[in-house]
Amino acid sequence: MTNIKDLAKLAGVSVTTVSRVLNDHPYVSKEKRDAVLKAIEATNYYKNINAVHLSKGKTNMMGVVVPFIDHTYFAFLIKGIAKQALKNNYKLVLFQTEYQKERELEALEMLKLKQIDSLIFCSRACDFAIIEEHMSFGPIVLCEHIEGKRISSSYVNQYNVFFEALEYLFEKGHHRIGYSIGRRTGTNSYEREMAYRDFLTKYQLPLHQEYIIDGCLYFEDSEKVMKRIKQMAKPPTALLITSDQVAAGIVTYCQANGIAIPEELSIIGFDNQPIAKMMNITTIDIPLFEMGENLFLQAVAEEISNKEMSVKLIERGTA
Amino acid sequence: MTNIKDLAKLAGVSVTTVSRVLNDHPYVSKEKRDAVLKAIEATNYYKNINAVHLSKGKTNMMGVVVPFIDHTYFAFLIKGIAKQALKNNYKLVLFQTEYQKERELEALEMLKLKQIDSLIFCSRACDFAIIEEHMSFGPIVLCEHIEGKRISSSYVNQYNVFFEALEYLFEKGHHRIGYSIGRRTGTNSYEREMAYRDFLTKYQLPLHQEYIIDGCLYFEDSEKVMKRIKQMAKPPTALLITSDQVAAGIVTYCQANGIAIPEELSIIGFDNQPIAKMMNITTIDIPLFEMGENLFLQAVAEEISNKEMSVKLIERGTA
DNA sequence: TTGTACGCGTTATCAG
DNA sequence: CTGATAACGCGTACAA
User: Fold this and answer.
1) Domain named HTH lacI-type: which ranges (chains A, B) (predicted)?
2) Which of residues 221-280 of A touch B (CB under 8 A)?
3) Residue B78 touches partner A, C-beta closer than 8 Å
């Protein structure tokens, strides 16, 4: 494998000069440049990027942590990140954690070892303290808002969104409202639960733990939701479904089983994914793609910033 | 940042010795090892992995090329790859190409520059010749079968699968059969089209170009399919849908629009995704996860191998 | 069992 | 404008 030294010898110049033409640096005469270029041609030389990485202490690689690669929510996020990565000449290293802390740690470790320059956590299971410990090794960006901590993030104000959606349903006459969610833990889920509790308190509604349905991520999880509801003596009349995928599944289920939407059951989805539009599902528009772009930009930025994404309710036919 | 040299000085040993304990190599006395370990503790030293990469000429990173990250088919594949990557201590670098050749080239370039050790193409737009040119830089694995070429691959015999599915529909009395597909180009699509043509020829059926519906990847693309069909004077009575996502969309559409399945329209999906099971869709089971695992293993293997995945028709309610 | 010395390939500094 | 030369940090023959 020919290297920069060989080129230098071949072109009759120094390695410095070779490096200069390789990186389009100024201060090199046309003759020498051509000589180097010729040598490059002749040897079909190519850089060893690892040497560059070592020398620069930088890899132009960014880590992206997601629990599930096949979940639409994260896929959209990644799409946004990938767009900016392409634009800024970064490569993406993907970590699928399934919410296992060791895997999240692996990503952090790579940041520490300088294999990646920065790291985006689209979601996490580990303690914030662990994240904090690694912040000195490179930029880390989160998808949640952590009060009083100096760390970049792009996030949705889950509390407000949830509260508003609940009020919307309440105004439509619903007093028994439930919700489905991916997991109960995590900042975002916590915010939602707070909103839910505060909403119930505000309107003096009772809290039914069974109205909160956990582990709902995919289209097919809708079956679980519906079966759960069927067994209830007093089932909710409206549901906040924190993924349009699941919402679509529920709508499908109801169509197949003769349950009228929104008359018998109202549904509000989340994300405003294409499937929600196609199926005319009322949903909360969350600009995931844009959020992904933000995340990337924040991960390469010098300063810390926090960006709250603007969301809005899209009124359609299911609520 | 403390390095191996500092450690050596601190522990009063040579860098070699440090390197030995760092990498669990034999031939180092307990005292020296402890001394080194102590130095490591004291300095909270950690490796610069890029130096390792340079020195070893290897990164333990694997590239994965997919056109669309948010497509379930590829997500499943990646899941399988990710599982083995984790097991074998490899990291994944993701390339979302949207079938743009330059982006595929970027991935190949990274292989050339040794930033990744090997490369998996889950799908591609570029010429095979380009791939071939890069095979000397590291293992490349494909998801298609290319006759007479020495390159590893895990693939489905698209021709046979398609032909059998078509015959299944024919036996059910269908003479007007169409199909939807992600794109018309590519080895796999070509094989399917060949099967389709041969099937028509075998039963002396006419070829309607309009029965082949292109650009169908996502759930919501089903709308396009159905609208297209509606406009036909003689619409197909059965459809092979090369993604369960799209098939699910079609079933949903039909339910909402009072089209009886399978009486008025028969549907066979592809992949046997969870959504197909939930919606009782007849489909072709393709072990994507396992295929992903294979791809990884082939990408780290010394020898070239070709693995045809076994598939089977899952009879359910839509055909 | 231990250490010296060099290689890995590139970039950056600094003197000319 | 050009070129020595010193990093960058680690692995590893080879010698001892």
Assistant:
1) 2-56
2) 222-223, 248-249, 251-252, 255-256, 274-275, 277-279
3) yes
